[in-house]
């Protein structure tokens, strides 16, 4: 099964934590957090990979003091059946998420 990335916002703002694997909404696209660290001047530095169709597999870095970042609630994720041969879509998704930077 794969996740349908149309989830609702959970929290946003400067104090939000961005754990690896979390889904965030930035610039109207869904991204998966790979790593997040605090910076001295720009808040959290978030390394992410695109999850929605338009930015899929694109790597990006966001700063929560420069971009509006919404942390998506995983409880609202709807699972959808992967009907691709040999679960190809699921395997590609997991590979993209688990691939080291």
Summarize the helices and strands and which ones pair or pack.
Elements: E1 2-4, E2 9-12, E3 23-26, E4 29-38, E5 44-50, E6 59-63, E7 69-72, E8 78-80, H1 88-98
Antiparallel strand pairs: 1-8, 2-7, 3-4, 3-7, 4-5, 5-6
Quick structural summary:
By secondary structure, the chain is mainly beta. It has one helix spanning 88-98, and strands spanning 2-4, 9-12, 23-26, 29-38, 44-50, 59-63, 69-72, 78-80.
Overview of the structural elements:
This protein has 101 residues and is mainly beta. It has one helix at 88-98, and strands at residues 2-4, 9-12, 23-26, 29-38, 44-50, 59-63, 69-72, 78-80. Strands 2-7-3-4-5-6 form a 6-stranded antiparallel beta sheet, with no helix packed on it. The protein has a two-stranded antiparallel sheet with strand order 1-8. Residues 5-16 have low confidence and may be disordered.
- Form type: elongated
Structural class of the secondary structure composition?
mainly beta
User: What fraction, in percent, of the residue positions are helical?
Assistant: 10-25%
For the terminal residues, how far apart are their CA atoms? 25 Å
Rg from alpha-carbon coordinates: 14 Å
Quaternary class: single chain
What proportion strand? 35-45%
**Residue runs with pLDDT of under 50 for 5 or more positions:** 5-16
Number of domains: 1
């Amino acid at each position: 099964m794969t996740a349908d990335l149309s989830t609702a916002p959970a929290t946003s703002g400067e104090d939000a934590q961005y754990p690896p694997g979390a889904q965030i909404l930035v610039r109207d696209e869904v991204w998966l957090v790979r790593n997040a660290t605090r910076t001295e001047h720009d808040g959290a530095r978030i390394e992410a990979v695109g999850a929605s169709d338009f930015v899929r597999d694109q790597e990006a870095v966001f700063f929560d003091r420069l971009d509006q970042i919404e942390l998506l609630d995983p409880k609202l994720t709807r699972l959808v059946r992967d009907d691709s041969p040999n679960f190809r879509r699921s395997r590609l998704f997991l590979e993209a998420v688990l691939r080291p930077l």
